[in-house]
Amino acid sequence: MNRIYSPTIFLLFLLLSCKKETPPAPKPLEIPIVQVLQQDVNLESEFTGQTFGESDIQINPRVDGVILSLNFKEGGLVKKGQLLYTIDPLPFQTKVNEAEGQLAEMQARLAKTKSDYEMMVPLAKINAISQRELIAARSSYNASQASIKAASANLKNSKIELGYSNIVSPISGLIGISKVRVGDYVRPGPASVLNTVSDLGDVRVRFTVSEQEFLRIFREISKKDSNLKNAAKTISILLSDGSIYSEKGKISFADRQIDPATGAVTFEAAFANPQQLIRPGQYVKVIVTSDIRKNALIIPQRSVIEMQGITQVYVLGKDNKVEMKAIQLGPAFKDSYIVTDGLTANDKIALGGTSQLKSGNVITPKIQEWTPGQGQAVK
Q1: What is the pLDDT of residues 323-359, one digit of tens each?
Q2: Which of 194, 214, 216, 316 could form a disulfide with 348 if both were Cys (CB 3.0 to 4.6 A apart)?
């Protein structure tokens, strides 16, 4: 009997051992979830600007000649009235000497003609000389007086030219690299620039705003209850290394016209420059508050899914189920978007980042806190 049933029992045991176990149910996806934020938002616009010193004075020669000396350190600070360049003064000193000689000669002639005239006056009264001779003597005396004025003016002009051979700084500030060297010949003219001195106590930043943006901001500021009126007066600049300049600026003026070639209006803003970090000629990003949204709803940009022109987000519902929802987006704010329709301040949305997430999925929410422009931090 054992021999008959042993094979059967073995076969049943083999079949039972080969039966597949039922696989466990997959775990819900762990998805980062953030709360829709509601807060006041200052929207900012960026414009490209260029920096200038408070005063940028070009140094030009006013007489021609050979440069004898440079009396400053290039790139250093100079004071008002400090000697910068010396032009060979010899030709101008010669003119001064000649003018002094001419003046002395005219003074001697004046003394003679005056003496002759004064001597002839009593003689003419007694008819010892003719009236013609008296008139000639008076004319010579008057001509000598006029010659004195001309010679004095010539001497004064020669001394002025001699003074121009010493070129001094018109302001205190930072001087640049010299465009001429000792031995170079220079001459007056707008194209003959020796150097530039900049007053860097304050700096000016010029930037252009498109006509459309200008009109929009102007209309907003003109409203009686505008929140933008005070906010737009204070501006910031972004330096080339990506850092925000520590000093805030204020708009000084706007140009009287819109440039017909570019369709833009030029603005200028003033910034304090206590450390002289800003130098003339730098290109910076000018940041201006161009709109203020009260109680705006904002969400991270990485949570938005765009398909065929429709923007959507995954919204966390009951029982940790997510549903895709269409929304309307407003302008960008840092690394987030302003939502104008489709969400409420009570909604929680998924950050996404995985193609496995589908509408109707039940997930394990991983709640995160976030701040626009500062990323997310795990709660």
Answers
A1: 999 999 999 988 899 999 999 999 999 987 667 788 8
A2: 316
Torsion of CA 344, 348, 354, 357, to 10 degrees: -90
- Angle (CA) 154 158 163, round 5°: 150
Structure tokens at 175: 């001087």
Q: Say what percent of the chain tops pLDDT 90.
A: 61
- 140: CB partners within 8 A, 6+ apart: 113, 116, 117
**Fold type of domain 63-87+167-193:** OB fold (Dihydrolipoamide Acetyltransferase, E2P) (2.40.50)
Q: What residues does each domain of the chain span? A: 29-41+294-378, 45-54+201-293, 63-87+167-193, 89-164
Please report where in the chains the tokens 């929009």 appear, as a residue. Answer: 216
Question: How many whole angstroms separate alpha carbon 303 and alpha carbon 339?
Answer: 12
Which run of H or of E encompasses 276? none
Specify whether the CB–CB gap between 243 and 93 falls below 8 A. no
Given a cut of 90, is residue 149 above it in pLDDT? yes
| Residue 324 near residue 290 (C-beta atoms within 8 A) | no
Q: In Å, how far from its chain's centre is CA 15?
A: 84
> How far apart, in whole angstroms, are the C-alpha atoms of residue 36 and residue 348?
6
What does the buried/exposed string (b/e) look like for 180-204 if buried means 16 or more CB atoms within 10 Å of the residue's CB?
beeeeebeeeeebebbbbbbbebbb
Return the amino acid letter for 236. Answer: S
| Res 375: pLDDT | 62
pTM over 0.85: no
Spatial distance between the Cα atoms of 30 and 304, rounded to a whole number of angstroms:
18
Q: Report the C-alpha gap between 118 and 131 in whole angstroms.
A: 14
- Express each pLDDT in 236-291 by its tens digit: 999 999 899 999 999 888 999 999 999 999 999 999 999 889 999 999 999 998 88
Residue 377 has pLDDT above 50, yes or no: no
